[in-house]
């Protein structure tokens, strides 16, 4: 097995197939309000917290864009469809968490999502007890791509960043992990691994099952 002490996971797009679910919810809102194709704006927001998402959307649509109203609409659509354990998990989630737990590795979460949502989604999926620590977007001052959230996760589990892998799907998440001197592994979701990402990560893997194979390698 490779030499490491912990793995810090992003959540949306890594553990849950939730970024597509959120995008689909925003498509409904965009259709209701004639916003046109919001895909580019949405992808620019992947990996960041609520505050930064709002700022990005205002840059795309103007300062008078009623972001809070539309975000509430999208949230209602999302939660009506996916609450109660209906949010789809990415392939290999339980397998990699079980592998890490059985191997005695620390497991943390560094998600830009608010803690109540993170806890509810992990609990509904039966995953909450796998994690030693959760660090969420509402407890840090600076959103990804700043490394603050990853450095705080490492501090909470008592492991040096250089001894931690970070599993990410978004560009901002990879930048955050790399900036904190963790060892990023990218498992692409909505966005492919471009040249910048390939220069920042230790490896790009197609799925969490592939990540298990990578971590097991000598």
What does this structure look like?
It is a single chain. This protein is α/β, with parallel strands linked by helices. It folds into 2 domains: 6-17 and 89-216, HAD superfamily/HAD-like (Rossmann fold); 18-82. 47% of the residues lie in helices and 11% in strands. It contains 10 helices and 6 strands. Helix 1 (18-32) packs across helix 4 and helix 5 packs parallel to helix 10 (208-216). The mean pLDDT is 97.
Features:
single chain, 218 residues, alpha/beta, Rossmann fold, 2 domains, six-stranded parallel beta sheet, 10 helices, 47% helix
Topology summary:
Layout: E1 6-9, H1 18-32, H2 39-44, H3 50-61, H4 67-82, H5 93-102, E2 106-111, H6 115-124, E3 133-136, H7 148-157, E4 164-168, H8 171-179, E5 183-186, H9 195-200, E6 203-204, H10 208-216
Parallel strand pairs: 1-2, 1-4, 2-3, 4-5, 5-6
């Amino acid at each position: 097995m490779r030499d490491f002490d912990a793995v810090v996971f992003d959540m949306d797009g890594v553990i849950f197939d939730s970024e597509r679910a959120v995008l689909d919810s925003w498509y409904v809102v965009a259709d209701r309000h004639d916003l046109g194709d919001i895909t580019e704006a949405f992808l620019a927001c992947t990996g960041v917290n609520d505050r930064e998402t709002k700022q990005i959307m205002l840059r795309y649509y103007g300062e008078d864009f009623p972001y809070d109203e539309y975000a509430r609409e999208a949230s209602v659509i999302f939660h009506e469809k996916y609450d109660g354990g209906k949010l789809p998990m990415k392939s290999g989630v339980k397998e990699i968490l079980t592998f890490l737990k059985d191997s005695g590795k620390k497991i943390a979460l560094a998600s830009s999502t608010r803690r109540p949502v993170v806890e509810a989604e992990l609990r509904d999926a039966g995953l909450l007890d796998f994690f030693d620590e959760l660090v969420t977007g509402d407890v840090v001052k600076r959103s990804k791509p700043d490394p603050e959230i990853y450095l705080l996760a490492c501090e909470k589990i008592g492991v040096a960043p250089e001894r931690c892998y970070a599993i990410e799907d978004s560009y901002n998440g990879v930048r955050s992990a790399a900036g904190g001197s963790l060892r990023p592994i990218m498992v692409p979701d909505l966005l492919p691994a471009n040249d910048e990402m390939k220069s920042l990560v230790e490896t790009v893997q197609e799925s969490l099952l592939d990540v298990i194979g990578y971590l097991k390698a000598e």
